[in-house]
Design a protein that fits this description.
With 127 residues, the chain is mainly alpha-helical. The chain has helices spanning 2-9, 13-20, 24-58, 64-85, 89-96, 100-111.
């Protein structure tokens, strides 16, 4: 009751306590306890709004299908470049900072024709 009256009064805490005959320490403790719970609720709501804002800025997440196609195109491009350059898997992976184990796995998949990918078809039209 006093907190709401104080907020509507436009008085400082000290002046409000003097006018109402309240002890400043007691009023401060009330304020901390009661507004602490309110502030926690407001903080939770603010964090939720911020999360929503971040998601809308980034856009929607990629679907699994698109993510998989992108990964396949990425590795197919690297396997083709590896074959074209005639380097070893270790040299190529080290030069580009990618996993030699993943590169070897994708190279074997593509070489065994378990996976047929034209990575150029996956590029965006503006590329």
């Amino acid at each position: 009751m006093h907190l709401e009256a104080w907020q509507r009064s436009d008085l400082s805490q000290v002046k409000y306590c003097n006018v109402r005959g309240l002890e400043r320490g007691t009023f401060a403790r009330w304020l901390n306890v009661l507004t602490g719970a309110k502030m926690a609720k407001i903080r939770v709501e603010r964090v939720a709004l911020e999360r929503e804002r971040v998601v809308t800025k980034k856009g929607r997440k990629l679907t699994t299908d698109r993510r998989n196609r992108a990964a396949k195109a990425f590795w197919a491009m690297h396997v083709e470049a590896l074959n074209w350059r005639g380097m070893s898997v270790r040299e190529y992976a080290k030069a580009l900072g990618i996993s030699q184990f993943s590169l070897r796995r994708w190279r074997d998949l593509i070489a065994d024709e378990e996976l047929v990918i034209d990575w150029r078809a996956q590029l965006h039209a503006s590329a």
